[in-house]
Amino acid sequence: MRVLVAMSGGVDSAVAAARLVADGHDVTGVHLALSKNPASYRSGARGCCSLEDSHDARRVADKLDIPFYVWDFAEEFREAVVDDFIAEYRAGRTPNPCLRCNEKIKFAAVLDRGLALGFDAVATGHYADLRRHGDGSVTLHRAADAAKDQSYVLGMLTQDQLRRCVFPLFDVEKPVVRAEAQALGFGVAKKPDSHDICFIADGDTQGFLARHLDDAPGPIVDDSGEVLGEHRGTHRYTVGQRKGLDLRVPAPTGEPRYVLRIEPASRTVVVGSRDDLAVTELTGIRTTWTGSSVEGPWRGQAQYRAHGTPQYATIEAVDGGLRVSLDEPAHGVAPGQTVVVYDGDRLVGSAVIAGAR
């Protein structure tokens, strides 16, 4: 099988490529250039898309003696991920740019180009378990390493896309991956995991947003409408936030206040108690099913953060969207986040959260 491996420059994609080579596949490595100026992206241990990372990926490809290319997706990345990130915050929502990158770049643009060039599949170093069945269908499951499971960020993939994907690290834990990399002589064997947002080089998300969005002040109010303070831009806040409110009026009970919702049209941030944050029903839009749609209602689990704890829920497809009724209240659920629904360890689908109550 001809496999195109997306090599980020980290240890996971390096070992994914090595495993495919060892299994006898015809492997080609590709690194994605996501900025016209690579120095503008985070470098070192905390990055995933920097110039340094591309060099690390090339060195691994040389060790494996496989072809290696750098593909320029800077324009696509800017439009689909960076511009979307800014627009979502402008609208008072909280996006997940890494999930958006998977959806629009790694498993759409790269897959489309790879198939056009004659490759059979695209592989990555994601920790997720893809199971193939006799009827040609595939199902996506959580990885063997629960601590590293990344199925959540793959929840937007369709059945057609999943059929063309390979995740070689589905059955191993991270220490084993590092040991394999060490045995193969990869310089990335001890390279720390990437995290944070790659296109915000200094890690200052608020500063990045302030350079792209209006820092216009507005009121911070409670649910009764009483003005408690003033903010310096709604993009500086997200639902569930407690720190940095700098309120002039303390709560009558002395308890901390949290951001309950953001109203960008009136430039208002509404705050309240932790109890006021509790929600038991989520509504989702832009639903994606990894297989056939499930009308429901059915019993499953819902996860609304990449590293969140799944919660038992009743799930139902409604009017092209998704309704998730949680068994227990959740706190800090923000519009713009993605809710991913599971049946046991099998990922069933996902939706972008439009509302919670």
Any chance you could write out the topology, listing elements then pairs?
Blueprint: E1 2-6, H1 11-22, E2 26-33, H2 51-64, E3 68-72, H3 74-90, H4 97-116, E4 121-123, E5 129-132, E6 138-141, H5 159-163, E7 165-166, H6 174-183, H7 205-212, E8 218-221, E9 227-231, E10 258-263, E11 268-272, H8 274-277, E12 279-289, E13 298-303, E14 311-318, E15 321-330, E16 338-343, E17 346-356
Parallel strand pairs: 1-2, 1-4, 2-3, 4-7, 8-11
Antiparallel strand pairs: 5-6, 6-17, 8-9, 10-11, 12-15, 12-17, 13-14, 13-16, 14-15, 16-17
Helix pairs in contact: 1-2, 1-6, 3-4
Site (Interaction with tRNA): 126, 337
Family: Belongs to the MnmA/TRMU family.
Main location: cytoplasm
List keywords for this structure.
357 residues, alpha/beta, Rossmann fold, SH3 type barrels, Elongation Factor Tu (Ef-tu), domain 3, 3 domains, six-stranded antiparallel β-barrel, five-stranded parallel sheet, 8 helices, 29% strand, globular, disulfide bond, Rossmann-like_a/b/a_fold, ATP-binding
The CATH first-level class of the largest domain comes to: Alpha Beta
Order of helices and strands: EHEHEHHEEEHEHHEEEEHEEEEEE
Average pLDDT reading: 91
| Biggest sheet strand line-up | 12-15-14-13-16-17
In a few lines, what is going on in this structure?
By secondary structure, the protein is α/β, with parallel strands linked by helices. The protein has helices at residues 11-22, 51-64, 74-90, 97-116, 159-163, 174-183, 205-212, 274-277; strands spanning 2-6, 26-33, 68-72, 121-123, 129-132, 138-141, 165-166, 218-221, 227-231, 258-263, 268-272, 279-289, 298-303, 311-318, 321-330, 338-343, 346-356.
